[in-house]
Structures are given as structure tokens and as C-alpha cells.
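Task: complex structure prediction.
Instruction: return C-alpha cells for all chains below.
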Amino acid sequence: MIQFKGVNKWFGKLHVLKDIDLNVAAGEVVVICGPSGSGKSTLIRCINRLEKFQKGELFVDGTPLHDHSTNLTKLRAEIGFVFQQFHLYPHMTALQNVVLAPINVRKLKRAAAEELGREKLARVGLADKADSYPSQLSGGQQQRVAIARGLAMAPKIMLFDEPTSALDPEMIGEVLDVMVKLTSEGMTMCVVTHEMGFARQVAHRVIFMDDGSLVETGNPHDFFDSPQTDRAAQFISKIL
Ligand code: ADP
Ligand code: MG
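Output:
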């Protein structure tokens, strides 16, 4: 579903992605972790071309992203992205946020989009919050609306960039629960997170990044219990 081949990216002189080779299969759940500034966000933002890269190849469901003629609207319609800071429109209700892209991009009629939107809100446990504005929702609820918004586009891939990092501790579980449910439905997911419990429960693979490189990859139990590199061991000891 996702294939990085020798991807390199620079911000000016700063080399932020170094020879990234990575394949993610359909239905696979990959957790990406590593120190701040190691390139995790940049890596997953390349997958829906929120970031360009200068060297290498990247295919998403067969579409070449290094080819600059790629239709980004179509690509992004197939990839849901959930950010640390929710990014909901504050002047729109939960339902309006969720139906915006289905109406504008998928060209659904409003009634059909709203039916779909209510179904997605129900799926994240927010059937009763359709008419609430973001300011009337907790952080955990806002993040679940953001997930419902991604799901409303029937994406092939869901990307999550530290989806629980901005949440109060008591709200982390409700967001992770929704994400766990998605993994059991066969969604292809790349999740930047330091939530070890989530990784151990559902990740097929953990990828450790440091200084722009993929340093280590393994199943979550091997990675957390017996990391192969000093850098990974040091990182794990800090998040424990
Ligand atoms: P992470 O998500 O692992 O914390 P990032 O992918 O955000 O790391 O950042 C990787 C490196 O790229 C960092 O050194 C960061 O400062 C730098 N960086 C990120 N975004 C930009 C940008 N828009 N312009 C310049 N440098 C950036
Ligand atoms: Mg980041």
C-alpha cells in the first residue's frame, strides 16, 4: 500500500529524511516512534504529499508521489490524516466538519453526506454530539470528531501524528480505543505515537527513527523488550 524507496528530504541544508526504505502492506498497522526532531512527522506527511521530497521514490497504492503530475486531490481523498492539534473548523458543528469533504470532494448530496457523517460520528461514540461546536467538546471528543472526519472519506490509509499528545491523560484512552477498533477492521495505519500500550496491543511493526534515519524495526514486543541498538534502548528507557 505504501512503498518508500531511497527517499531523501532536505529543509534547506538540513537533511531530515535519509535513504528511507519502507513498505507498508494493506491492513498493516505501523507505529513510528523516536526522539523529537527525528523526522517522524515529515515522514508521514510525505505519504499524502503535505511535504515534498527531493530524492527517491514513493508509491501509495501504486500511485507515484515523486511524479509531480500526480493528482493530489484524488490522493488525499484516499488518505485520512489526524493531527496532534485536531484542526477542526471552530465555526462548524461536529457534523458539519465531518461532511465538508464528502460534499466538496466526493460530491455527495447533503442529505447523503449527513447520513454518512452521523454514522461515522456514531462509530467514534459521538452520535449525540453531531450539533456541538468544537469549543463545546473536550479534547478527546474533538480528536474523535477528527477521526470521524477522516473516516467519512472512506480512506484506504489513515495516518496519525501524535494523536493523543495534546490530550489530558484521562482522555487518551477514549481516542486510543477508537483507533484500536479501526485496526480490527483492517485499516492500513501509520501512527506516530509513544503510547507503548497501543503499540504492544495492535501494532504489527514498530519503527524507530533517529536523526532522519530508520534505525530499527521489529515487532512491538521485541522492540520494547529487547531493542537491538543503543539509541533505541536509550529512547525506550526515557518513555517508560
Ligand atoms: P518529529 O516529528 O520527529 O519531531 P519533524 O519531522 O517534525 O520531527 O522534524 C524533523 C526535522 O526537520 C527537525 O529538525 C525540524 O526542526 C525540521 N523541520 C520540520 N519542519 C520544518 C520546516 N517546515 N522547515 C524547516 N525545518 C523543518
Ligand atoms: Mg512530529
